[in-house]
Amino acid sequence: xxxxxxxxxxxxxxxxxxxxxxxxxxxxxxxxxxxxxxxxxxxxxxxxxxxxxxxxxxxxxxxxxxxxxxxxxxxxxxxxxxxxxxxxxxxxxxxxxxxxxxxxxxxxxxxxxxxxxxxxxxxxxxxxxxxxxxxxxxxxxxxxxxxxxxxxxxxxxxxxxxxxxxxxxxxxxxxxxxxxxxxxxxxxxxxxxxxxxxxxxxxxxxxxxxxxxxxxxxxxxxxxxxxxxx
Length: 230
Hints:
The protein is of the alpha+beta class. The chain has one domain (4-166): Ribosomal Protein S5, domain 2. Helices cover 35% and strands 23% of the residues. It is built from eight helices and six strands; from the N terminus they run E-E-E-H-E-H-H-H-E-E-H-H-H-H. The protein has helices at residues 61-73, 96-110, 118-129, 135-140, 178-183, 191-210, 216-219, 226-229, and strands at 4-13, 22-38, 43-49, 79-86, 143-148, 153-157. Strand 3 (43-49), helix 1 (61-73) and strand 4 (79-86) form a beta-alpha-beta unit. Helix 1 (61-73) crosses helix 2 and helix 2 crosses helix 3 (118-129). The protein starts with a strand and ends with a helix.
C-alpha cells in the first residue's frame, strides 16, 4: 500500500448567491505523497510549491487534520514521511485550507485497518473547516449544494457542466485568509437583502440543474458577502 498519493482539488465556494452553501471543485490540484509510516508523533515533511518555506510541522494543516481525524476515531496516529506539492495558491480564495484538511483526513482514512467511503468522512471534514461549501466539493468533485447544522450534513451533487463550458479564475496578488475575509461581513443584513439572496440562490440551483445557463448572471449576484469583500 505504501507509498501512495492523495490528490485533492482546489475549489471555488460562496458561488454567487450561495454563501457558505454552494461550491465547485476545479482542475487544479495539491498532491500528498505518503512515503513511509513512522513512529507516532514523528513527521518528516518535504514541501514543494506554494508556501513551501512557511509551513512548519506543528502548524501544517495536513498534519493537524490528520491527527485530529485519528483522535476523532479514538485511534493512535502513526507518524509519516510525507512529500507535499502545493499547486493551489495560498489564501487566494481557491480552498487551499480545505485541500489541506481533506488531504490529511483522506490520508488518515487510508491508513486505517478498515477505510470508510469518502461520503462518511464529510461530516468530519466539515466540522474541521466550519462550513461545507469548499470541503464537500473538494471531497466529491463537481458542484455541490450543502447544508450543515453543526452536527449533520445534507448535500446534493449538481449535474456536470456541459462540454465547452469552463471556469476562469482570477487569482489576486494579495493574500487573505478565510478568517480575515469573514471579519468583513456584517452580523445582520436588511430583510430585502436576505430575500434578494434567497431568490437568487434558488434560481442558481434550479438553473444549474435544468441547464438554463442564461439565468447565471442573475443567479450569481449577491448582497450578503460580495459587496463587503470587494
